[in-house]
Design goal:
9-stranded antiparallel β-sheet; 7-stranded antiparallel β-sheet
């Protein structure tokens, strides 16, 4: 496919990273691709009328903000976007003073264009003029916009009067992992195809040009990634934590501040959140929304449906991905049970708030909005209401037109009248390779190796092991580096050639950490399990405290703000891989030369209460808190009211809106829960009903009133004898309060009432095993319906069989292959099952078939096959 000469004239642009130009498709030109999707027998025609063809100088498409939801997609049928209506050409400006001055008031733009000076323009969308002001005139055979293409997206640097060829993208197959992938250096000649969304929302783009043609772009699009299908949330309120390797820490030898912070702020469950545990190991292509912030030097991709994670940071000049994101494996996402709510995946930069662990929001959508910087450039804000701590957090991404580094401004606000424990760690995944070194301004660190004890070690290490080379690590470990609090904190990961990623922050983010899976069989197995490949990665992290085991109080009504900078770094090999003092000094020099501290100090205004233009919707919980305060006649919170509009209220909030408005809760199985004293007061004063009693019990349990919680659930069960959920809560409480036999009986009754909830069946089987009722546990496992929990059911069947003396049954399950989709980090159940089978065989002098079957697959410690060895210690 070639670009029509008239279209080339219209696209005389310089320095535009992604210019989106509507177009009609006319005469045949062979089977070429537009937007990375297959196109057959079409030729790009101009999207402008005759009066727009005679341009005196190069023009610049300064902004595109097409109405969202005006396009659909039929990926199964066509593999490309389908337009529902013709698109608009918006916001053209001539380069040069006269053209800019005239164009700022042009009537045919259809939007308000605000001049920023020569070569520096920003177009601000006006919704009332979105699609009705002026359409581009089409002529020739291509008068009608092809309904199979909503946009024609061309990379910039189109040369006037050239008929530049646009090469084909993927010719066949599903549109998987369609991330932008133009690695040409700025100013490279010739056009390219900007890969568009793969799904049903039109790209929304905002462009700003700086002097010399530099430009920042923010756009929203859908891409397709391979990931597991996710089922609904687990309907069972989590009455305990899933288990954390950082719990129960031996604080011997720690200073008073660290010991106090470790003891402070612990939680007993992730309430009010429900678990995200319904997923399998099978990957299927699925759409997800992303935001892309880009200039000529960097391209940042943010996953808006997954906690606002910074998924990719590409150094466009060096042609390198700076973050680990499984890009060699088509950016696939594989879930594992490492998050506070179970589902988690490795890669990118994750923003962890709440309590020790991977944030409860890591697999949930967040709110996103576009903001304008002081120079007119667009920036991206993500924000949410964190429900465990009742905190507001916002993360502002800014990338100036000439910036070589991405700045991230973060603000956490406590809108409550009491202090709140705060935890924050920015978790940065980096690809591991031989020779990659982590450099940090530290001479000592606290090592944590899952013996649940911190102890101080020298940095970079001993004469035997240099811990700053994580690819050579022998064990799974955390290293919490001790930094000088008076100096700028930073951490970097550079490869054998001295190039890599640098992260620097303002001083509030005082902690730095290295995490490595290590090269033990368990560490290697975990990486393979989480990535689906033999690739390895490690994490460098930055936090509010010296270690991840600590929480610190944020006072009533207070906010904490800090800034982080991410970007490429290149250092002399002999220095960065030489003596430790030389590695630190050359990094300090590089930071000073890049003027990173000045970038940190150019905050985008995270302190401001600016709403921005909404781009993506998160939860309605912040809006519900705003409504609760209004109904309760409490002091409103400006930050809550600004960031969380009432329009974000949804189905999950409906029961609580009813409680606020009527004093009653609707009947039926709850879809959500609340915790905290204000809600407890409302529930205690609500009209008695089974629903009210059920929720009273959950809130009472969350604040440690266990007996009172059980009383409420028993009252709910008395009011509604078919309330399986009240009975389940009673059964779970019995088990946690040391009554396993009673718990098992109660679980069986609950399962009789609701046999189709897989998670209820799992809990019932575990209760039966705890009560030594092994044969019943085996039967319940064998009769479980097919579900993503099949591996867990088969494991429980094998475990009960071993304890019941049915070794052959357990062996047959292990022989046929056993994989648990939601295996918990630190869980050694598969290796324990293998070893107990072997031990029972030896005790009975039987023939152990497992030893014969997997003889060639055994790992190098205690004869456990690699596929079953997830042990991180011992």
């Amino acid at each position: 496919m070639v670009v029509d000469q008239a279209a080339a004239l219209e696209l005389q642009v310089r320095g535009v990273a992604d210019a989106f130009v509507p177009g009609g498709l006319g005469s045949p030109a062979g089977g070429e691709d537009v937007l990375g999707h297959r196109r057959e027998d079409n030729r790009v025609r101009s999207a402008v009328g005759d009066q727009q063809r005679h341009l005196e100088s190069a023009q610049h498409v300064v902004a595109v903000d097409l109405a969202r939801r005006e396009t659909g997609a039929d990926l199964r049928r066509h593999g490309h976007a389908r337009a529902q209506q013709r698109s608009d050409v918006v916001g053209r400006e001539r380069l040069g003073r006269e053209g800019l001055d005239q164009g700022a008031h042009a009537a045919d733009v259809g939007r308000q264009v605000v001049g920023r000076g020569v070569g520096e323009m920003v177009e601000e969308a006006r919704a009332d003029q979105r699609a009705e002001r002026r359409r581009a005139q089409l002529d020739g055979p291509g008068d009608e916009v092809d309904r199979g293409d909503s946009l024609l997206a061309l990379r910039a640097q189109v040369v006037a009067d050239d008929e530049a060829a646009v090469g084909p993208a993927h010719q066949h197959g599903p549109v998987e992992a369609q991330l932008p992938d133009d690695r040409r250096a700025p100013g490279a000649d010739g056009p390219g195809v900007a890969r568009s969304r793969a799904g049903g929302e039109t790209i929304q783009a905002q462009l700003i040009e700086g002097a010399g043609g530099d430009m920042t772009i923010l756009d929203i699009r859908s891409i397709v990634l391979s990931m597991p299908r996710r089922g609904p949330l687990n309907p069972l309120p989590p009455l305990r934590l899933l288990g954390d390797l950082h719990d129960d820490i031996d604080c011997t030898g720690l200073d008073a501040e660290m010991a106090r912070n470790i003891a402070y702020g612990k939680v007993s469950s992730v309430l009010p959140y429900l678990l995200q545990d319904d997923y399998s190991r099978e990957l299927v292509p699925q759409e997800t929304s992303v935001a892309i912030l880009e200039n000529d030097y960097l391209r940042a991709i943010v996953l808006l449906d997954f906690g606002g994670r910074l998924w990719s940071l590409e150094d466009k000049v060096g042609g390198r991905e700076l973050l680990y994101n499984n890009h060699h494996n088509n950016h696939q996402i594989q879930f594992g049970n490492l998050g506070l709510r179970n589902a988690w995946f490795p890669g990118g930069v994750e923003w962890n708030l709440g309590t020790t662990g991977h944030t409860a929001l890591t697999c949930s959508p967040v709110h996103a909005a576009s903001l304008e910087l002081t120079d007119g450039a667009p920036s991206l804000r993500i924000h949410e209401w964190e429900r465990m701590r009742d905190l507001v957090y916002q993360v502002d991404f800014r990338l100036g037109a000439k910036s070589r580094h991405l700045a991230v401004d973060i603000k956490v606000t406590n809108p409550n009248s009491h202090a709140v424990p705060v935890y924050w760690w920015s978790n940065i995944a980096v690809a591991s390779s031989a020779g990659t070194r982590v450099v940090v301004p530290s001479r000592s660190a606290f090592e944590f190796t899952y013996t649940r004890r911190l102890h101080r070690v020298p940095v970079p290490g001993s004469s035997v092991i240099d811990l700053t080379y994580p690819h050579a690590a022998t064990q799974t470990a955390d290293y919490f580096f001790e930094l000088d609090p008076e100096k700028l904190p930073w951490v970097a990961a550079v490869d054998a050639a001295g190039v890599g990623l640098l992260q620097v922050s303002t001083r509030r983010l005082r902690g730095r950490k290295l995490f490595t899976w290590g090269n033990s069989p368990g560490g290697r197995r975990w990486q393979e399990f989480l990535t689906g490949s033999s690739e390895s990665y490690f994490e460098i992290q930055a936090g509010l405290t010296r270690t991840q085991l600590e929480h610190v109080p944020l006072g009533p009504g207070d906010s904490w703000s800090w800034s982080e900078v991410y970007g490429p770094v290149s250092l002399p090999v002999e220095a960065v891989h030489g003596e430790w003092v030389d590695a630190i000094e050359c990094m300090v020099s590089a930071i000073a030369e890049a003027r990173i501290e000045s970038v940190l100090n150019e905050r985008s205004g995270a302190y401001d209460y600016r709403q921005g233009e909404p781009l993506h919707s998160g939860s309605g919980w912040g809006a519900l808190e705003s409504l609760r305060r209004e109904v309760s006649q409490e002091q409103p919170s400006p930050v809550i009211d600004l960031l969380f509009p009432r329009s974000s209220l949804g189905e999950d909030q409906e029961p609580w809106i009813a409680l606020l408005e009527t004093g009653r809760l609707p009947p039926g199985t709850p879809c959500s829960y609340v915790v905290g004293k204000p809600w407890l007061d409302l529930l205690e004063g609500a009209a008695d009903s089974a629903a009210a009693m059920l929720h009273r019990g959950v809130v009472r349990w969350s604040v440690g009133h266990r007996e009172a919680a059980v009383e409420a659930w028993e009252a709910a069960y008395a009011l509604e004898p078919d309330s399986w959920l009240a009975l389940r809560n009673i059964a779970a409480a019995s088990g946690l309060m040391g009554e396993p036999r009673r718990s098992a009986e109660q679980y069986l009754h609950a399962l009789d009432l609701m046999p189709d909830v897989a998670q209820l069946r799992l809990e019932a089987i575990e209760a039966l095993i705890a009560a030594d009722r092994f044969s019943e546990a085996i039967e319940l496992s064998q009769t479980a319906p097919e579900s993503p929990f099949a591996g867990r059911f088969r494991f429980l069947q094998a475990w009960a069989a071993v304890l019941h003396g049915e070794i052959r049954l357990a062996e047959s399950i292990l022989e046929s292959g056993l994989e648990i989709a939601d295996l918990r980090e630190g869980e050694a159940s598969l290796s324990d099952l293998w070893l107990i089978c072997q031990r029972r065989c030896s005790e009975t002098h039987g023939d152990c078939r497992l030893h014969r079957t997997h003889r060639g697959e055994a790992s190098d410690h205690r004869d456990v096959p690699f596929i079953y060895d997830f042990r991180l210690h011992g």
